[in-house]
Structures are given as structure tokens and as C-alpha cells.
Amino acid sequence: MFELRTLGSRLAGAAVVALGVSCLVFALLHLVPGDPVEIMLGEYAGAADRLALRSRLGLDRPLAEQWMRFVVGVLHGDLGSSLVSGRPVAALLGEHVGYTVILALAALMLAALVGLPLGVAAALGAGRMWDAVASILAVLGMSAPSFVLGPLLIIVFAVQLGWFPVGGANEPASLVLPAVTLASGLAAVLTRMTRAAVLEALLLPHVQAARARGLGEWVVVLGHVCRNAALPVVTVLGLQLGALLGGAVVTETVFNWPGLGQLLIESIQRRDYPVVQGAVLLIALTYIVVNGVVDLLYTRIDPRIQSGP
Amino acid sequence: MSANHSTARGIARMSAATIVVAWLLVALSASVWPPAAKVSLPGILAPPAVPLSLGRDDLGRPVLARLAAGARISLLVAFVVVVVTGLLGTVIGLTAGWLGGAVDTLLVGVTDIFLAFPGILLAIALAGVLGPGINNVVTALSVVGWVGFARLARAQTMSIKHRDHVQVARAFGVQPVLIVWRHVLPLIAGPLIVEASFAFAAVIVAEAGLSFLGLGVQPPTPSWGSMIRDGSRYLLVAPHLVVVPGLALASLVVAINLLGDQLRDRWLPRRP
Questions:
Q1: Among A78, A220, A276, A307, which is least packed, fewest CB within 10 Å?
Q2: Residue-wise pLDDT tens digits, B214-225
Q3: Residue B129: closest C-alpha in chain A
């Protein structure tokens, strides 16, 4: 019962936010300083061309009608068509979204594989070597933006050592450097969060009790500490997925990875605004869905949340 | 805490402050350095050399001078954006937290919408639509940046407005604006200043990111982000064009974040 009600209110909340996001994205095109048609076509375009583009974009209609058309279009999966290639925006997005998903998932796994054990090790050896290593890595990971780390990795591992390709997505090895770059920030945050959560869980009474019963250190850590520490870590992981999606835009540009981010930046440079709108909307909506799912997962993992009102 | 540990902390604190002050001095003195825009074709892509040369870029311009000019842009943009978003966010958050009700609901709804754009995405979209240029970068980052301050100010205000001294002031019939100014703002200033220090670092990264994507400061004005972008084309022959501004950016951001950590440890009581 509680679960259904929670589900309902979460869905409603997410729907309201999604509507707001679509309004903001719709407003983007109207923020273009001056006349968007003139900017897209250039100063020397003929009056007929301008008129044609204006009516194709629907800019000659009243604002309310434009907005209604946009929302109805989005609900039907119709995001207009590219001004450059003339192809439907939805098809363009479909071609690129797979690459971004692969990159984000790879980075997520990598960050979890590095961040979780490192955080646990740092907490268990608080104040000692692993702790110092983890905290230095965390500061570096959080402070080195992907457009700094990415080129540095290219210099070392692609140019000097020749282990991986410089960019593109022509072979499986192409995924390695972008994934490492994108994962670095998340791994740093995860390490910090895991360390704090484990330190807190170590003090819980049942952990002390398990120790007092003479259980082995590994049993205590894996069975009693990590399960409790998992809660805050899962929350952070969910919230950070958004940062991952945002970071992918820059990382894809660094490595010429043909995902949504690269499509977005290219479309901005070509002033292909319908594609810009579509890409921004898709990334933001994905983030809303992911956050909603994480929220629900969280209530499932932690029974205490459901017992609330 | 062992003596050894606190010495290490002291060193970290000093070096973080030193790095930030050093970059400030570099930025302030940028105009007395050799001209950053002077094209010198014989020196194209020259590597760094001792003493005091960080090499030259693809037009033979000195990297060191461009780095200094870039530092000025970075710090200037960050300063303006943090001041604007800090003031705006604080006023909005204070108002919503103090008034509550429909105003508060509206604010929470609007912040939720802004926060639904992951990371730098909204700033990219705004800067992309507004067109490149330093003013548009400041606008885009300001439109995105006030949300964090507003949320923090709102939460803090709500926790403080029921405290005794505020209630007493209310009972005495003091004007609400005066109560907020005298009795609420001083208590929430600490967390907001800590937030501002982290926001400062975040804006520096964001500005460099936008410039890296070609959406920020335009040539010939140097920015660390656009220096990295231009340098990426010469990774094979002149890696210093990426390494130098990259390390500069990382050092400044690490130092500011460390200072923020120290501010937080000093001013904000640890959570239980």
C-alpha cells in the first residue's frame, strides 16, 4: 500500500519536473539573441528562404501554439528535423545514444570497481597508508576536469605508449581512455563516500557484537559493515549518474566519441537548434528517469523509509 | 591526532593558500607581462626551456604570458559569477525559507527543474544558444549557479526561523526585513561562504570547460580552456600546450577546494 502511494507521488513529481524541463528546453530557442532564423541562415539569406525556415520551425505562430506543438511533438517522439541534414532529430539521437550509454555504463562500472574497494580499504586503515593514498587520489580525481585528464591520458597511453587509439570508436580498445577519464571524478566521490559510510557503520552496535562473538574480520566487514554502508553509497551513485551524463558531453568531445554529447556540441556549432533541443531534452529526461529509479530502489533497500508516513 | 599528522595538515593548508595567492598575483600582474598576443613565427611550438619559458604556441605566442592572461579571465569570471549567484541565490532562498507557503513551493519546483539538468549541460545549452563570448559565459553560469545557494539559504533559514531569538524579535514587532538582516543572515553566512568557495572552484572548471568546447571566451583572448582546446591539435609535437594550462587549472582548483575544506572544518560543526 505504502509502496503504491510512494510510487504514485514519485511519478507525479517526476512528471511535473519533466514538464518544467521541456518548457525550459523549449524556451532555449527563443533565447537566441536577435532573430534565430537570421542567425541560422546568415545575413545574406533571401527573404523567401527566411520565410520558409520560419514557417518550418513554426516561429510564425503564436507562442502558446508553438509550445503546444512542441509538447505534443515530444509526447509523440517527434522532435522536428535537423536544419543541416533534414533528417528527423529522433533518428539522429537514436544513432548516437547507444555510444553514450556504453560509455556511461563502462565508466560507472570502472568507478565502482575502483572507488568501493579503495573506500573500504581507506576506512579500515584510517590514518594509515591506504587512507592517504585514497584521499590524494580523491582530491586529484575531483579536481582534474575531463578536458585536462583526457588529453594527458592521450599523451601518455595513446601517443607515447601506443596502447590505445587517440580517439574515435572504431575498435573496442577505443572505449578504454574515455571510460577512464569519465570514471575518474565518480571514482573519487565514491571513494570518499564509501570511506565515510564504512567508518560510520564500523561504530554500529551489531558490528561490535559480531566482533565480540569472535567472527573473522572479513566476515564482519563484508557481512555486517558493508551492507549497512551500502545505503548512502547507493544514493550518491544515483545522484552522480547525472554528473556522469553531463561529463560525457565534454569527454566525448575530447575523444571524438560519437555519442549524444558530440552530437550536441556539433549541432551547437552548426546552429542546428532543433537537434540541440532534442539532445538536451533527451539527456535531462534520462537523468530524471534514472534518479526516479534510484529513489525507488533506495526505498526497497532500506525498509525504514517505507515505515514512514 | 598525532603531531606528525597536524604538521602535514599545516603544510597542506599553507601550500593551498600559497597557490591561490600566487595565481591571484599572476592574474593581477598579467598586464605587465610580455604581450600575450604577440605573434612570433620563428618560435612556433617551441618547447619549455630554462629559465622562465613555458614554450610557445602554434602562433609563436609565449605560453607563460597567455597563462597569466588566462588566469585573469578565469578568476574574473569566477568572481563575478560567484558574487552574482551568491547574492541572488541567498535573497531567493531567504525569501522562500522565511515566507514558506506558496512562494516556497514555487521555489522548490523551480530548483528541481534546474537540478534536472545534469552537471554542466544547461550551461552548455545556454552558452551555445546565446553564442560565444565572455559576457554570455557569465550569463550562462549565473543562470545555472544560483540554485545551489538558494537551496542552502532556504534550508538554513527554515532551521533558524523558529529559534528563540527570532521569535522574540517577532514578538517585539521588528520588521521582517530587519529580523532577517540582523538575526538570520549572520547565522547562515558561514555555510554560504563555504558554499561560495566550492562554487568558485566549480565556476573556474565550468568556464574552462565551456571555453574548451569553443563556447566560451573567444580568441585572441586567452583562456585556460581554449588553450587546452587549441593545444589538443598538437599533442604529438607540442604536448606542453596542453600540459601547462592543464596543470595550472588543476593546481588552482585543488588549492581552492582544499581551502574550502579548511573553511568548512573550521566554521561548520561536524555532523553527529
A1: A307
A2: 888 887 788 898
A3: A32
Higher-pLDDT residue of B213 and A240 is: B213
Across A112-119, average pLDDT: 86
| Beta-bridge partners for B56 | B62
CB-based burial of residue B162 (10 Å sphere; 0-12 exposed, 13-18 middle, 19+ buried)? Answer: exposed
Quick count: other Cβ atoms within 10 Å of Cβ B157? 24
The pTM score is 0.84
- How many CA atoms lie within 13 Å of B33's alpha carbon, on the beta-carbon side? 23
Q: What is the pLDDT of residue A307?
A: 45
**What local confidence, expressed as pLDDT, does residue B87 receive?**
94
Q: List the beta bridge partners of residue A81.
A: A88
Q: Which residue numbers in chain B have pLDDT < 50?
A: 1-3, 271-272
Chosen for mutation from B212, B234, B254 (greatest number of chain A CBs closer than 10 Å) is B212
- Put simply, the answer to whether A145 touches B208 (Cβ < 8 Å) is yes
Contact A151 B232 (CB under 8 A): yes
Closest chain B residue to A291, measured at CA: B116
Question: Looking at the predicted structure, is the pLDDT value of residue A194 above 60?
Answer: yes
- Interchain pair B213, A253: CB under 8 A: yes
The confidence score (pLDDT) of residue B141 equals 92
**Of B246, B26, B70, nearest in space to A140 by CA:** B246
Residue with the three cell numbers 538554513: B156
Contact B124 A283 (CB under 8 A): no
Minimum distance, in Å, between the CA of residue A74 and any CA atom of chain B: 17
Residue A130 in this model has a pLDDT that exceeds 90? no
Chain B CA closest to residue A148:
B246
Helix axes B134-160, B185-212, angle to 10 degrees: 150
Between CA B182 and CA B177 the distance in angstroms is 9
**Which chain B residue has the Cα nearest residue A24?**
B113
Distance from CA of A56 to the nearest CA of B (A): 19
ipTM score assigned to the predicted complex: 0.80
Contact A126, A176 (CB under 8 A): no
Q: What pLDDT digit, counting tens, does each position of B175-220 carry?
A: 888 888 888 888 888 888 888 988 998 899 999 999 998 888 887 7
Contact B214 A265 (CB under 8 A): yes
Which of B15, B111, B113, B136 has the most A C-beta neighbours within 10 Å, making it the best mutation to test the interface with A?
A: B113
Q: What is the 3-state secondary structure (H, E, C) of chain A?
A: CHHHHHHHHHHHHHHHHHHHHHHHHHHHHHHCCCCHHHHHHCCCCCHHHHHHHHHHHCCCCCHHHHHHHHHHHHHCCCCCECCCCCCEHHHHHHHHHHHHHHHHHHHHHHHHHHHHHHHHHHHHCCCCHHHHHHHHHHHHHHHCCHHHHHHHHHHHHHHHCCCCCCCCCCCHHHHHHHHHHHHHHHHHHHHHHHHHHHHHHHCCHHHHHHHHCCCCHHHHHHHHHHHHHHHHHHHHHHHHHHHHHHHHHHHHHHHCCCCHHHHHHHHHHCCCHHHHHHHHHHHHHHHHHHHHHHHHHHHHHCHHHHCCC
Determine the distance in angstroms separating the CA of A277 from the nearest CA of chain B, rounded to an integer: 8
